[in-house]
Amino acid sequence: MPLAVLLSWLLNSHTPSAILYSAITTPVVTLWLRHAMQSVNGLHKWPAEQWIGAGTILLSVVILCSPLLYFLTPGIVGAIALLIWILLCVYGAFAATRIHNKNLSITSAKLNRQYRFVQLSDLHAGSRSNKFIRKAVEQAKSHQPEAVFITGDLLDSSSVDQHTLQPLAEFECPVYMCIGNHERYVDLPAAIRSIEHNRVEVLRDSSQYFESLNIIGIDDADDRQQVAKQLPIISTDSTHYQILLYHKPDGWIHACDHGIDLMLAGHTHGGQIWPFGYLVKLRFKEFLGHYQRDNCHLYVSPGTGTWGPTLRLGTRCEMTILDLAPAA
After folding, report:
1. Which region among 31-40, 187-196, 315-324 has the lowest average model confidence (pLDDT)?
2. Per-residue confidence at 158, pLDDT binned at 50, 70, 90?
3. Spatial distance between the Cα atoms of 267 and 265, rounded to a whole number of angstroms
4. Which CATH architecture has domain 99-326?
5. Which long-range contacts (CB under 8 A, 24 or more apart) does 59-68 make?
6. Nearest alpha carbon to residue 62 among 17, 16, 18
7. What pLDDT sits at residue 24?
8. Domain residue spans in the chain?
9. Nearest to 160 by CA among 32, 305, 30, 50
10. What confidence tens digit (pLDDT) does each residue in 121-144 have?
11. Do 173 and 147 form a contact (C-beta atoms < 8 A)?
12. What is the strand order of the sheet 201-202 is part of?
């Protein structure tokens, strides 16, 4: 465990002592984390989630500080590592509370006027509080969107109810959503009832016109061919501007081939805590940000909230302000 290494540095103890400490504490901590993460009690789960995040940061700090042992005593290296760890955790906690605005402008010959939309993704009500959900809604409302798109993982706990999601009902515009993997992991029918109670239209392998724009939502699935399989059986019309909401950044090429103009996704969190982004990139080719193929666009949000630990390091919470306009 990185904590055992850090303590051995701080105490100037020998390597065998660190190994013995690790051998004793690792099974205990592992059992506690397993029990806490399976608990529906937030008071049990929250500390475990934060420790997972802080422990991940500590692991990186220990690895990066290890070369200093060639030049400094273990005690000094331990003090440096401890200070860096604390500062990074404080920064990460702050970064997880701030929602950045990402502006994205796209033009198309299919559009006959300008539109402004806001994309929210991975809010993770349950991991995040009602207060955070309200903050995201108020910030989104300040951009005066004509519609809001939620690209999955709105919630991640069966304890989330209508009250937790109540801020969503305060939008003065249509709100469209596709379900993400975390909606599938809970009581999905109950989750959808709570979501729809707050005036959110959940598009489940279906489409809905917003003026002349066709908004399509596809349910998240583990199958990487989900988009390719579902689009042919959903009502689409390539003569209209078409926006696809799908939680994972899978199937974008199939979406382009099927006449989709803009695909919105999330799920990756940008890795959330460095250096996890490098691992996520191995799974998702279109990992984060804006991609374009001819007139077909994809935007992968790093997420508006966080999952598990309320920490961000090397990434940021974000909402996307989409400005669509006719091509000149």
Report:
1. 31-40
2. confident
3. 7
4. 4-Layer Sandwich (3.60)
5. 59/2, 60/274, 60/275, 61/2, 61/85, 61/88, 62/2, 62/5, 62/6
6. 18
7. 53
8. 2-95, 99-326
9. 305
10. 999 999 899 999 999 999 999 999
11. yes
12. 99-108, 317-326, 115-120, 147-151, 175-178, 201-202
- Report whether 313 contacts 278 (CB < 8 A): no
For residue 125, the SS3 value is: strand
Predicted local distance difference test score (pLDDT) of residue 33: 47
- Pairing of β 201-202 and β 175-178: parallel
Task: Pick the closest to residue 203 from 135, 152, 166, 249 (CA basis).
Answer: 152
Q: Which amino acid is at 3?
A: L
Q: How far is Cα 250 from Cα 231, in angstroms, rounded to an integer? A: 13
Strand, coil or helix: what is 214? strand
Q: If residue 11 lies in a helix (H) or strand (E), which one and from where to where?
A: none
Residue type, 17: S
The Cβ of residue 319 has, within 10 Å, a number of other Cβ atoms equal to 22
Please report, for residues 121, 265, 307, 313, the alpha-carbon distance to residue 87 in angstroms, rounded to integers and kept in the order given: 28, 32, 21, 11
Instruction: Give the residue with greater pLDDT, 36 vs 141.
Output: 141
| Residue ranges with strand state E in the chain | 99-108, 115-120, 147-151, 175-178, 201-202, 206-210, 213-217, 242-245, 262-265, 289-293, 296-300, 317-326
Residue holding tokens 């988009």?
Answer: 227
Three-state DSSP state, 297 = strand
Q: Provide the 3-class DSSP secondary structure of residue 154.
A: coil
% the chain with pLDDT above 70: 90
Is pLDDT larger for residue 188 or for residue 32?
Answer: 188
